[in-house]
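tool_call: predict_structure(chain=1)
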Amino acid sequence: MQEQPANMRCIHCSHFRNSPAYLEDTIKGLNTMSSGHASVRKDDGICLANDVYLSARDWCEKFETA
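tool_result:
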């Protein structure tokens, strides 16, 4: 698999949401066990186009500039 250029990774995509507030609102119960501010989460988030939780370093063919 070919590596995607860094500027086309999920962290730069309009479909990607990773704010702590958004994650706590979307993933019910997250703040019971931890929080959206957890350091283990790093920049991970949710892709609205694919409906998955993933790394900000991932990428796919649905990339759109934020």
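agent: The CA atoms of residues 9 and 33 lie 29 Å apart. Proceeding to next step.
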